[in-house]
Amino acid sequence: MLRQDYSHNFFSNQLSMCMKRLLLLILFAILPFSSNAESNLDKILAAGIIKVGTTGDWDPMTMKDPATNKYKGFDIDVMNELAKDMGVKIEFVPAEWKTIVSGITSARYDISTSVTKTPKRAEVAGFTDTYYKYGTVPLVLKKNLKKFPTWNSLNDSNVTIATTLGTSQEEKAKEFFPKSKLNSVEAPARDFQEVLAGRADGNITSSTEANKLVIKYPQLAIVPDGEKNPAFLAMMVPKGDDKWNNYINEWIKKKKSSGFFTMLLAKYNLKSL
């Protein structure tokens, strides 16, 4: 009887240990980023290179020169400075607005140039601290300013609003213009090009880009009704990689204190809200 009790207890203990190990394996499998996982920071320093996802179509933040295939802009300067301070090389990975988030989640790159922080993106990607804030404005043809003098004048069933697929403006257009027809175009096409071509009555974009576009294309004009939707720009990083995110946040803090971002704002004639 004693031997049977011993065998029973031994079997129960072994089963309990197996169950605990199985539960631990399941737990580690479902964790988005376990504490034992190697941080992107460690991988970057070990490889000596940082991979940066960028669209190259957002003046003046990130622009790709088709003649040289090189990138330039506010965010590009930020990333080059980060790589320099880390002592690593930099590789810019081409991205599109509709896939810029999935590039982070699939580890195509370690970090992205700035994007607007939205709840939808934050569900799957991590965000650094912000370093730039902007407002949103509508653009129309200058000749149509009398017809569309306000935000509300664009919210009409007879009006077509163009958006670029995957951008935060695509989400906001549905909120601002529930009555209007929305026409989403896919990069490399851009929403403002639809306005220029007469296929849309207006589009919305950051005040930063709008101020550049009306200089480049004098036929465009900003609707003089004020900015809406103050938005924050930040870099995207893998969700749960706190070591990498904290490193970037500390770097941003130091660069703000040193005057680096103030210098860049002046260089690109920008003013953060």
Explained architecture:
There is one protein chain. With 273 residues, the protein is α/β, with parallel strands linked by helices. It has 2 domains: 40-128 and 235-267, 3-Layer(aba) Sandwich (D-Maltodextrin-Binding Protein, domain 2), CATH 3.40.190; 135-231, 3-Layer(aba) Sandwich (D-Maltodextrin-Binding Protein, domain 2). It is built from 10 helices and 15 strands. The protein has helices spanning 2-30, 40-47, 74-86, 100-105, 119-122, 168-176, 191-196, 207-216, 242-258, 260-267, and strands at 49-54, 57-58, 62-65, 70-72, 89-94, 111-112, 115-116, 125-127, 132-141, 160-164, 181-185, 202-206, 220-222, 228-234, 236-238. The strands form 4 sheets. Strands 7, 9, 10, 11, 12, 13 and 14 form a 7-stranded mixed beta sheet that branches. A 3-stranded parallel beta sheet has the order 5-1-6. It has a 3-stranded antiparallel beta sheet with strand order 2-3-4. It is elongated. It starts with a helix and ends in a 6-residue tail after the last helix. Residues 1-8, 14-18 and 20-35 have low confidence and may be disordered.
Structural class, from helix and strand content?
alpha/beta
Q: Which H/E pattern describes the elements?
A: HHEEEEHEHEEHEEEHEHEHEEEHH
Distance from N terminus to C terminus (CA atoms, Å) equals 81 Å
Poorly predicted segments: 1-8, 14-18, 20-35
Provide the β-strand percentage band. 15-25%
Which bin fits the share of residues in helices?
Answer: 40-55%
The CATH homology group name of the largest domain: Periplasmic binding protein-like II
Q: What's the shape? A: elongated
Number of domains: 2
